[in-house]
Amino acid sequence: MRSLDDMAHEAKDKKAAIGPDIDLDTYSLESAMHADVKNLKTIPEEDIERMTLTGLDVSEEGRAGTYLQKDATAVHSGSNIDGLEIIPIKKALAELDWVRDYYWKLASVDTDKYTARVRLDLQDGYVIRVLPGKKVTLPAQACLYLEKEGFNQNVHNLIIAEEGSELHIISGCASASHVTRGLHAGVSEFYVKKNAKLSFTMIHHWAEDVVVRPRSVAIVEKGGLFLSNYISMKPVKSIQMYPTIYLVGKGAVARSYSLLVGSPGSELDVGGRIYLQAKETRAEIISRAITNGGNIMSRGDIIGEVSGVRGHLECHGLILNGGIMQAIPELKGLVDGVELSHEAAVGKIAQDEILYLMSRGLTEEEATATIVRGFLSVDIPGLPAPLKAEIDQAVELSQKDVM
Amino acid sequence: MLLIEDLQVKIGNKKVLKRVNLEIRSGETHILFGPNGSGKTSLLMTIMGYPQYKVTGGKITFKGEDITYMTIDERARLGIGMSYQRPPSIQGLKTRRMVQICANNGVDVDSLAKEINFSDFLDRDINVGFSGGEIKRSELLQLMAQKPDFLLFDEPESGVDVENISLIGKTINRLLERDVHATRDKSKKQLTKERARMGLIITHTGFILDYLTADKGQVLYNGALACMGNPIEIFKQIKEVGYGECVRCVA
């Protein structure tokens, strides 16, 4: 049998199935080492500002724990709660045997050159695990920060919700304000075990010439719930991701929500794919995208493999100030008795809605902003209030760019 | 005060209003009758300022200002508000927020909603999946928050169930400040004289006449105002002999 490293070597020039191809050699792998950050409040103010935009709370009040990585270095990592483990993956691989049961068990190293790169040039990443039966109601936070110009950051994350546990994670990715160019490649593997509940909210805040290639795979066991939210509303050169979720146990549920804003020069190719592989599983993929000059490809794919499963897909796109919006919903039923549906719409803001609000006293600009905010305000059932507040804040901040 | 002089309006190439003249004095409420397609909604939408209703002649004056070519929001801020028959729904905009928008914030939405039996709808997206009657209550709630000086109602009774019809009638009555009661300082007559709120109400069923004493009735027929008089008398005529006869008899 070939080793994972062999497979990675063979795939190191393999283009991704979709999205613009990136020349990895034009990015640097040499990073300045960063010192440990004991107290998050000692981080320079301008960095805190950027990190805060992706949900990181440096006071750690109201957070169950924190992982912070700058470029290649895990600078802060720790849990404030018994039963919740937050460990840098390199340390975990060196010290904990059980990590090997999860590492590269869902994602394939030879998916494309980005997974191969993460395998061959792993810098760090986080392992977040909540122990059986432990319900952590405060969100755990993680931030992957790009500080060096032209750097290629390669991370690998493992998220494990043990049987009957509950965990909410807010994971931000941002670049420092002086960074214009960079490449972020990330592999994430999610394990939602029997009757566990995991929510994962990812907020991206990159720069105009940053390329982003996340590769995520999740598995949800019997009675488990996986809620995956993705928010990208800031300029970025190119994001391409198509995370996959396997519902393998009876009654498992997955919901995926994405809120996207495409600025001029940005190319967002974002999708979600869910396999319904066990009885009574349910899936929902909802995306709201606005382009004001960017190029957005909103994909979704639900595959029903067992009778009686249900799935719904919804891609709504608005074109505000030029740009291209493409919605590509796909459904596949492999047996009798699956119930899958989709709804896709691409359009502009309806004039009658603007006029209605103007007749209540708003100016045309205020009316447009109100409609845009409404369009991006999706009710996400099961999301704790602090995470909802983070999403609302991101939507609020995006207003200025969109208008 | 509202003064409409010789107003002509087109939608696209179609003339929808020809030479309309109308005066509503401060404190007055008028009822607008007319068969389907006679231009009633067009008249209200033109007063509100909807751009697809192109004014090709004439003039609209409100509070002494020429508003003929003002934008909708300018008119709203000047004190004109409308209850729509079929307003659009807006995804993600909570009814609660919409009511705050109407009031320009600083309003006790919950207690207002209670008055119009609409508390259960505040956290729903505005007009999304509302029934005809729910839309009417939502529209009234918005006007309660907006407090315009001149209120336009487009068939406020359509689709309202029997249970809520008197609530709608009484609320409109109150919005138009017609439910005055004598106080220690002022007589009913004096209060009525001081009233400034004005209204223009489209009705097909005449239900509103059971709840308020309107000052005048108008019949809009074929794009022109054809007769003016006591609204109860006009409504009686219409019921007995139909719009055509009604217009002929008065003209």
Summarize the structure.
The complex is a heterodimer of chains A (403) and B (251). Chain A has 7 helices and 21 strands. With 403 residues, chain A is α/β, with parallel strands linked by helices.
Total tally of structural domains of chain A: 2
Uncertain residue ranges of chain B: none
The Cα radius of gyration of chain A reads 20 Å
Bin the strand percentage of chain B.
Answer: 25-35%
State the oligomer: heterodimer
Could you say which overall geometry of chain B the principal axes of the C-alpha atoms support? Answer: globular
Helix/strand order of chain A, N-terminal first:
HHEEEHHEEEEEEEEEEEEEEEEEEHHH
- Average pLDDT of chain B, to the nearest integer? 92
Q: Termini of chain B, distance in Å?
A: 26 Å
Largest sheet of chain B: 6 strands, mixed
What does it look like?
The complex is a heterodimer of chains A (403) and B (251). Chain A contains seven helices and 21 strands. Chain A has 403 residues and is an alpha/beta fold. In chain A, strands 2-1-5-7-9-11-14-17-19-21 form a ten-stranded mixed β-sheet, covered by helices on one side. In chain A, strands 10-12-15-18-16-13 form a six-stranded parallel barrel. In chain A, strand 1 and strand 2 form a beta hairpin. In chain A, helix 1 packs across helix 4 (113-120) and helix 5 crosses helix 6. Chain A is globular, with a radius of gyration of 20 Å. Chain B has helices spanning 40-48, 72-78, 95-103, 109-115, 132-146, 162-175, 188-194, 231-250; strands at residues 2-11, 14-24, 29-33, 54-62, 65-66, 80-83, 150-154, 198-202, 216-221, 224-229. Chain B has a domain at 2-88 and 149-180 and 197-250: Rossmann fold, CATH 3.40.50. With 251 residues, chain B is an alpha/beta fold. Chain B starts with a strand and ends with a helix. In chain B, strands 6-7-8-3-9-10 form a six-stranded mixed β-sheet, sandwiched between helices. Chain B has a four-stranded antiparallel β-sheet with strand order 2-1-4-5, with helices on one face. Chain B is built from eight helices and ten strands. At the A-B interface, helix 5 and helix 6 of A face helix 2 and helix 3 of B.
